[in-house]
Amino acid sequence: MKLRTLALAALAAGGAPAFAQSSVTLYGTVDQYINTMKSSSGASATALEDGAYLRTRLGMRGVEDLGSGLQAKFNLEMGINGDTGAAAGSGFDRQSWVGLASPAWGEIRLGRQNTAIFYRGDYIDPTSRTLGSVVNDFGVPSRFDNDIAYLSPRIAGFMFEGHYALAETGAPSKQAIYQAAVDWTSGPYRVGYAGLYARAPKSALYDKPVRYDNLYANYDYGRGKVYAVFIRSNNSTSSASTSANGATILGNVGGVVAGTDPNVNRYFHIWQLAADYRATSQLRLGALYGRISDQSGGGANASGVGLSAYYDLSKRTMLYAVAQRLANDPNAGFRFSGSAGLKTNFSGGDVNGQSIRALSLGITVLGFPLYLLA
Q1: Which CA distances in Å does 124 have to 40, 203, 226, 295, 370?
Q2: What are the residues whose beta carbons fall under 8 Å from the beta carbon of 361, sequence distance 6 or more?
Q3: Short-list 222, 8, 240, CA closest to 119
Q4: Where does the pLDDT of residue 102 fall: very low under 50, low under 70, confident under 90, or very high at 90 and above?
Q5: Pairing state of beta strands 57-67 and 86-87?
Q6: Which tens digits make up the pLDDT trace of 193-236?
Q7: What is d(CA 165, CA 218) in angstroms, rounded to the nearest whole number?
Q8: How far apart are CA 34 and CA 46, in angstroms?
Q9: Nearest to 280 by CA among 309, 323, 316
Q10: What is the pLDDT at residue 129?
Q11: DSSP characters for 20-35?
């Protein structure tokens, strides 16, 4: 988990390097893996994929010391399809925010930014909630536009985070996306909650809000951690082009709730147990089991297992292997996903009601940051 933690803390959080109070930093990561899958339908696929653990990206972050502990910050980050070199989206599609921070009162950020749920991947399972995670197979809200966020300092083990993302088309006061999170840590223990609440238009045919409530806990036993997570969400729907659970009602990146999907009335419970073990200073092993349960009685249930191994060649380069199996009940159609979605994935009759197995072998490299000092 060292590589993931280093990337999220040093690259995404926008903090200044220890030796400089004011600076601009250019950074990047590349993550490529060979993925081979087989469905119980008989279909199989092998492809070079991007972003099992960390999506390939380029970014720029900056911090300026304004005096008395106050800092101005920004983060611009774009995703890249590492296997083709093409941009993954339009412009700085991953993050684009500016903010003010103080050790006394915390941090305020404005712009497109990662969700509180996204940032807590390291707390959920050995994969950091990426490839091989049943939680990730259900889908995780990742980032939203027009987001106003507050992150508190940690006091007595507690840290609070809140977000309010305006929907600047239609009725923003009715279609806003709210997020709240609280995290507590003391010694080897960590417990927390991260949740999302997204409103539909007031006059919508299906006006129930989309919710994603995530409770997590982990315990560090010295050579690794044990993890438990429970999620309640109604953010899953069918897709005509993929599978019975191949889409989300609220887009995982950007977007608002349209209020036109009756599946918003169907809730799922997702729970997962996991553990990892550091066999050596370089090798970490992980295992997990998870279950997706359709609470509507519609039978869209699934269960999955994952085994993973991560080997640090250096503090910036990691080799990994992930083996996973996901079994869909007859009315379910969940698929594998990594930090980035799989470009070559099963659909239709190769997913719905099928059991899918996969083996992935890859490498993640963090580019050496370039600090431009003020």
Answers
A1: 29, 37, 9, 22, 31
A2: 33, 34, 319, 320, 321
A3: 8
A4: very high
A5: unpaired
A6: 999 999 988 888 999 999 999 999 999 999 999 999 999 999 99
A7: 29
A8: 7
A9: 309
A10: 96
A11: -SSEEEEEEEEEEEEE
